[in-house]
Design goal:
This protein has helices at about 10-15, 20-35, 45-55, 85-95, 155-165, 190-200, 220-225, 235-240, 255-265, and strands spanning about 5, 40, 60-65, 70, 80, 100-105, 110-115, 130-135, 145-150, 170-175, 180-185, 210, 225-230. The chain is of the alpha/beta class. It has a seven-stranded mixed β-sheet, sandwiched between helices. The longest helix has 15 residues, at about 155-165.
């Protein structure tokens, strides 16, 4: 039986409007109360934003944020951190990239960008999390956790080739969404962070279940004992992990639907509700 359950947020646990559905919230509470399963939210979102969301939900959970660059305890204590190397930060922030995508940097103070893009705020309507407008080239290179680019997917695919040529094995590049390409520290991903958390709790990754929908969930889903892919997941994720079961769509609160079946009728075959 699973002892730790890890959940991606956007496209997985959250509805398309970026709110947490009531059925999902109730099911998460059932995991804690009826099965004493430890919860972890594994997300690309910032710890400051997630702490605000948790406060509204009255849920106790560990936080894996910044796509594995930070782990925080239920009490908010920093357990693990990993930042981009100053060389990578300097190279990316001061580079000349052939792209129309917007650039965003993150550190412990929050979200930093050169100009506000209203459509990017839609994902943060529930929390009110907003960027601070700065000249990114003036940021101290030793204080950047991750950098991401937001824009058209085809444009980002071309940018990924440029970044890979420039950075080589000094950074980890992945898509956290079709329209978001992330530059992360080497060794930082949700799977590695979940391994650190599991060991801290005295578990193994085989004791974990995890849910996700994007390529930044790949390492986590492939490492745990029970990984589940959302029906609305990126096609590449489904293609890369064809052995994992696919459940329903986030708009139908598929995580809640699956876990309710797992809690109440595990002896019956599960049929996803798309």
């Amino acid at each position: 039986m699973a002892r730790l359950a890890a959940f991606d947020m956007d496209g997985t646990l959250l509805l398309p409007d970026h709110h947490l559905g009531e059925a999902t919230l109730n099911t998460l509470k059932r995991l804690r109360e009826e099965r004493q399963i430890t919860l972890a939210f594994a997300t690309g979102r910032h710890e400051l934003e997630m702490r605000h969301i948790l406060g509204k939900l009255d849920l106790e959970a560990f936080l894996i944020t910044g796509n594995g660059t930070r782990i925080h305890s239920m009490e908010g204590e920093l357990m693990h951190r990993n930042d981009l190397s100053p060389w990578v930060v300097e190279t990316v922030l001061h580079g000349h990239w052939d792209t129309e995508a917007s650039m965003h940097a993150f550190n412990d103070s929050g979200w930093l960008t050169s100009h506000e893009i209203p459509e990017l705020l839609h994902a943060h309507v529930y929390s009110g999390f907003r960027p601070r407008i700065v000249d990114l080239r003036t940021l101290p290179a030793h204080e950047v956790t991750k950098i991401c680019f937001c824009g058209d997917h085809d444009d980002l695919c071309r940018l990924r080739i440029q970044l890979n040529d420039a950075l080589g094995d000094r950074a980890f590049l992945c898509f956290s969404a079709m329209d978001c390409l992330e530059v992360l520290p080497v060794g930082s991903n949700k799977g590695a962070a979940l391994g650190v958390l599991s060991a801290h709790l005295g578990f193994t990754l085989q004791d974990c279940m995890a849910f996700g929908d994007a390529m930044n969930d790949r390492e986590m889903l492939s490492a745990v004992g029970h990984g589940l892919i959302m029906g609305n997941a990126m096609p590449q994720l489904k293609a890369d992990l064809p052995h994992l079961p696919v459940i329903g769509h986030c708009r139908n609160q598929a995580v809640s639907h699956y876990l309710t079946h797992w809690l109440d009728t595990p002896h019956l075959t599960y049929s996803p509700e798309y």
